[in-house]
Every structure is written in structure tokens, then in C-alpha cells.
User: Fold this.
Amino acid sequence: MFKLVIVTDSDRASGFRLAGAEVYEADDMEEARAAIPPLLHKDDIGIVAVNEEYMLGLDEKLMDRIEKMHRPLIIPIPSKKKEVDRRTYIERLLRKAIGYNIVLKR
Assistant:
């Protein structure tokens, strides 16, 4: 059986631990970038849920590798913070869906 692993900040970690998930705490983007790649190679992990703001900070090379993998499945946890750049997130989704970089301007 595969397990669920969470990469999140210390504010949310306790809640996920109470739910029974294995949790890796990352207090900033750099810690998250260091924690995620080793999880991609473990055979017993089925899903890795990552804070949305940490997902947005991953480099393109790692994101391409994640998108091509069958397991583990990497999913974002919606952010509670308002400072997540929604425009960047939407642009990345568009680039993934249609293969072109669309820049959104007001």
C-alpha cells in the first residue's frame, strides 16, 4: 500500500499529522525545494501533497519531471496566504495545457 506524504509549513503540519499523514515541514521555499526531489524516488509513496506556494517556486526542470512521472502523484494544497501570485499560477497552467507561454496583462 502506498502512503500519503505532505510537504507543508509548520502552521499546517500538526493538522496533517493528526490525520495520520507523514509530514515534512518546510519553513521556506528553499527547504521545500530540498525536500521534494528525494520523495520522488521512494517506492512506498503514492501521493505527495505540497503547499501551493511551494509548488509555484519549483523550477521548470523539476516540474517537467514531476509531470512525466506516474507515481508518486504530486498535488498542490490550496494556499491560505494572499501573496501567492495567481497570475503566475494561471500562466503556468496555460503553458502546460496548450504548450505556449501566455503572458497575462491588465
